[in-house]
Amino acid sequence: MKIHMEISHPQNPSIHVGQIEYSHIEVGTSPQMLKGRLRLFQESLFFEYEDKTLEEVPAIKEWTDLLKDVPFLPLLSDIQKEQFIDSTNSVQDLSIFFSLKYFLPILTLDADRIKEPLTLAKHEASHIEWQDDTGLNGLFSQASKAQVSQDTKNIVQIILFPPSISREKSEALIQSLTKMFVQIHGGESTYELIEKAL
Q1: Can you tell me whether residue 149 is helix, strand or coil?
Q2: Which of 27, 38, 131, 144 has a 20 to 30 Å separation from 91 between CA atoms?
Q3: What is the mean pLDDT of the chain?
Q4: Bridge-partner residues for 8, per DSSP?
């Protein structure tokens, strides 16, 4: 499985894009270890950011300067109000955990529900949108008809990295995520990193 991705490059691209593909996976209820980790991590985020303006946190400000909709920001805002995210499934939980831990936008799609090429575009309004060859599309920050379910066997995951993160660090983070992902879901993974793509 290799999904061809096309990127519509803006005038001054600065965001690195990681494309990960997982095949022959098993999606299910999160193991207790992941559920507990996600809950404890949200509690630690609450205490850390309870009295802070999120947009002034340097790692978050870097994203708000680049994008109008920062996918993980609404989740952090809810955590600030002690509205913690409930466990959904193993894929969603791990994606949310990793996104919040490293402040990285992550888009996870059921690869069998999309038809390649998968196109990414950053619009003038600083929204990032994806679209497949059938016209199925969505903003990077929204759920979609191609979202993962318990029947999903193959996944394509897109991770955005800010300019401040080097290629070496980006690749190390991708490898860390794929290792955790395969430990929980089985299957195999491949990835590609495209520097200054969006």
Answers
A1: coil
A2: 131
A3: 92
A4: 121
